[in-house]
Amino acid sequence: MSARPITTVKTIVTGIEEAGADIKLFTLADPDRWELPPFKPGAHIDLHLPNGLVRTYSLCNEPADNTRYVIAVKREADGRGGSRALHDDVGVGDIIGVSLPRGGLAPDARIGRYMFVAGGIGVTPFLSVVRHLQRTAQAEFTLHLVAREEVPLAAHLGSLIEAGTVVVHRTSRAGRPDLAELVGDPDPETLVACCGPEGMTEDFERLTTAWPTANVHIERFVAPPPIIDPDAKPFTLSLARSGTEIQVRAGQTMLAALQEGGIDIATSCCGGICGACKVGWIEGRPVHRDRILSPYERERYLMVCVAGSDAERLVLDL
Ligand code: FES
């Protein structure tokens, strides 16, 4: 049984560029050079790698150019294997399936200023955003890029650094910037966002607790450890479209129960940070444990890799 086919778009690797410090830029295009599905600035795609791994990467090119998807990948020797597979095994001409783009920055007329903080390769989700904001001039923006010494993707940021809209903080020379000072006081017309190593995103989260939730955006590299609820009770998943009922055992994830029931669900991080496994819910009381959905989105969606249920029955839009 497959209630929810995993949709992938076939792409071909048309270019691989060395971009310094163990970083490669991969350009993916439609094999017949048709336009690819459109995306918002800061959107992500999942790559279905030839070795079976599924990994999520930010799109770095401008959304106005959807004849290609460009991703920047840093080779993490001790990572989970996705970056090694891309760096070591993927070449120009290879075919790679990718998901439809998701996430990114929706236009918001209330926001007049954007302030981004990136740690190292955490700059990648902001590349398409700052290019888009520079071209459309719809709002002021500053990207603070914190790097030990070498600036990741420096060649792609040159004009923005010169213009002062990308400010580089080299920690080997000047120490870490004062994050509290960069974040400043809550402002409903400003959106603040951060992507970087765990310590940085945790500090950023702490410093923005007084901000309106909709004005704060945090992207994480690594999923937090799974939350084990010792009081978790079994519950029933009711799949509205197929009429199927699936039992979730105490302590079992919804994802595992769905997979056991033969339901295909796209996954990447399996820790509530990437958005790949988002499913609509219709009835019940979900316990959201993801780090990605807004309060508004939680009224309609959940992440099956981490969510639980506070009621005996939860109806999903599957
Ligand atoms: S697989 Fe990443 S949020 Fe569920």
Describe this structure in words.
- The chain contains eight helices and 18 strands.
- It is α/β, with parallel strands linked by helices.
- The protein folds into three domains: 8-99, Beta Barrel (Elongation Factor Tu (Ef-tu), domain 3), CATH 2.40.30.10; 113-220, Nucleotide-binding domain of ferredoxin-NADP reductase (FNR) module (Rossmann fold, 3-Layer(aba) Sandwich), CATH 3.40.50.80; 235-316, Beta-grasp domain (Ubiquitin-like (UB roll), Roll), CATH 3.10.20.30.
- The structure holds FE2/S2 (inorganic) cluster.
- Residues 267-270, 272-277, 290, 303, 305 line the site of FE2/S2 (inorganic) cluster.
Indicate the low-confidence ranges by residue numbers: none
**Strand elements, count:** 18
Count up the helices: 8
Described by the principal axes of the CA atoms, the overall outline is globular
What ligands can be seen in this structure? Answer: FE2/S2 (inorganic) cluster
Name of the top-level CATH class of the largest domain:
Alpha Beta
The radius of gyration computed from the alpha-carbon positions, rounded to a whole number of angstroms, is 20 Å
Structural descriptors:
3 domains, 318 residues, alpha/beta, Rossmann fold, binds FE2/S2 (inorganic) cluster, 6-stranded antiparallel β-sheet, 5-stranded parallel β-sheet, Ubiquitin-like (UB roll)
Topology:
Layout: E1 9-18, E2 23-29, E3 44-48, E4 54-58, E5 69-74, H1 82-89, E6 95-98, E7 113-119, H2 124-136, E8 140-147, H3 158-163, E9 166-170, H4 171-174, H5 179-183, E10 190-196, H6 198-207, E11 216-220, E12 235-239, E13 245-248, H7 254-260, E14 278-283, E15 286-287, H8 295-298, E16 301-303, E17 308-309, E18 313-316
Parallel strand pairs: 7-8, 7-10, 8-9, 10-11, 12-18
Antiparallel strand pairs: 1-2, 1-6, 2-5, 3-4, 3-6, 12-13, 14-16, 14-18, 15-17
FE2/S2 (inorganic) cluster binds at residues 267-270, 272-277, 290, 303, 305.
